[in-house]
Design goal:
Length: 485
């Protein structure tokens, strides 16, 4: 498609940057002239010439009529969707916008608890009732799977009033669920399918990668173009591909959520990343898939480090983006955090994240064979040096409470909360989000009735002095609950 060779927004910005334009607009550094010299000496001066404000030549993100409108249309064409919105606050803002535009306060949405924290922000902002599906814990691979089609079907049967289903696919580990089946289940019942595809902006562009959300039939999805493709951080997209979604409503909601001073370097990088993946995606991802599979094979010859395979994931009814390397280090006797630290400070390699069990090494358009070699030789070194012994850590998740007594929004907005001893918390309504790592999934969410099982799970963590994200206090001896006084 010839039109995909165009980059209208990048072109406008580059051509303006090359002209001698005196700036009497924000930002204050005026084409970089006022930037701290040390910073400018490092970055060079050109990048500041892309840092402009809204004026007709560069168009407005909130009301696009020119270059941004054309760049978004090309993005929509590349992904085969009705409309694409550029995001300058990552998929985080996209997740909030999806929930806010698909639902009205009081609607209910089916979703797995294995969702990014921005999803909970979206639940609070939109005022919906979440209907949680218990995520599946795999104690062999030490990872958590998002909902499968059977779980979604059961939830739709139990909660026919749900307005939408919200799925995270791929997960952080690159695992995708059967979105095609889930889309059919949703559409047969007149429900919207919303997908957090933050980790999947590349899927559409290679036949050996799992099916993308839009191709599977999602009504809306968000993608972090910056995570795997070449956009700079925060550059993401929200795709709408449904007549059931009102585009003007999405536009208005994004206007609420996004800054009026978007960074045009981010926007230009979205335009460039789209063109790159459209023309070179097949080649880039063929190379990355080959590199990743070679790496996986070498890692799986090590004594103590393991990287699960597509075959293993498919056998469980899911699919895998093989370019994501999940490195299980439990047999080294070290935690994922410890290996992350050693990789960073002894070998100069930084992975994307780590937990007790795994490290996640993410490949992207810029990954080279040399990078992968460097990672492999570091892992081989760690594997050789370590005596290796299995720790008896177990990935656990209590049965999550499914009794939402109040919406998270009502709890968030109301002031009447009190602290009660954790040992007496069962029966109260949580006014807090508590997320232990692992499993990295909130075990309590505002508005939920605290069960005895969750109370005991948290008490056990407190006894072991394990810090829980969201605990607010030095030790987890009390929890904040809704005060009914
Ligand atoms: C599954 C998932 N969704 C959404 C996000 C948020 O994406 P962003 O960083 O682009 O805001 C992340 C970030 O890591 C994520 O892992």
């Amino acid at each position: 498609m010839k039109s995909q060779g165009r980059t209208p927004l990048m072109d406008v910005l580059l051509s303006r940057a090359k002209r001698d334009v005196t700036s009497f607009h924000t930002p204050g550094h005026k084409n970089g002239q006022g930037v701290d010299p040390k910073l400018r000496a490092f970055t060079g001066k050109n990048v500041y010439k892309l840092d402009v404000t809204v004026f007709p030549e560069v168009d407005s993100l909130h009301d696009p009529v020119g270059a941004i409108k054309r760049a978004q249309a090309l993005m929509a064409q590349a992904y085969g969707v009705k409309h694409s919105f550029f995001l300058v606050n990552g998929s985080s803002s996209g997740n909030m916008a999806m929930l806010m535009s698909a639902c009205h306060p009081g609607d209910s949405v089916i979703l797995s608890r294995n969702a990014h924290k921005s999803t909970l922000s979206g639940i609070i902002l939109s005022g919906v009732w979440p209907i949680w599906i218990q995520p599946k814990v795999d104690q062999h691979l030490d990872i958590i799977f998002d909902s499968d089609a059977a779980q979604v079907e059961e939830a739709l049967r139990q909660f026919p009033e749900a307005k939408a289903v919200f799925i995270t696919s791929p997960t952080y580990h690159g695992v995708t669920t059967d979105l095609k089946k889930i889309a059919d289940l949703c559409h047969e019942r007149g429900k919207l399918l919303l997908v957090d595809e933050a980790h999947g902006p590349h899927l559409k562009f290679h036949k050996d990668l799992p099916i993308s959300a839009v191709e599977a039939g999602a009504d809306m999805c968000v993608q972090s173009t910056h995570k795997i493709l070449s956009a700079v951080s925060q550059g993401s997209a929200l795709h709408v591909n449904s007549d059931w979604v009102e585009l003007n409503r999405v536009r208005k909601i994004l206007s609420i959520l996004q800054t009026t001073s978007p960074n045009y370097f981010i926007l230009a990088s979205l335009d460039a990343a789209r063109r790159q993946v459209f023309f070179q995606g097949e080649k880039i991802f063929s190379r990355l898939i080959r590199l990743a599979e070679e790496a996986r094979e070498r890692i799986n010859h090590l004594r103590h480090i393991y990287c699960f395979t597509q075959g293993e994931i498919r056998a469980k009814g899911y699919d895998l983006d093989v370019t994501k390397l999940t490195l299980n280090v439990t047999r080294t006797g070290l935690s994922g955090h410890e290996v992350e630290h050693r990789l960073a400070f002894e070998y100069g390699i930084q992975v994307d994240c780590a937990d007790l069990f795994n490290l996640i090494a993410i490949m992207g358009t810029g990954t080279t064979r040399r990078d992968v070699e460097r990672l492999l030789s570091a892992l081989e070194d760690i594997d050789r040096k370590d005596p290796g012994h299995e720790r008896n850590w177990v990935l656990q998740l209590p049965s999550l409470s499914t009794e939402m007594v109040m919406t998270p929004r009502d709890v968030f907005l109301q002031h009447q909360a009190k602290r009660v001893p954790l040992s007496k918390a069962a029966g109260h309504i949580s006014a807090q989000t508590l997320t232990p790592y692992p499993p990295g999934i909130p075990v309590l969410i505002p508005g939920e009735r605290i069960t005895k099982e969750i109370q005991d799970f948290l008490l056990d963590l407190a006894d072991k002095d394990i810090r829980v994200s969201g605990q607010e206090t030095d030790t987890l001896r009390t929890v904040k609950v809704v005060s009914t006084r």
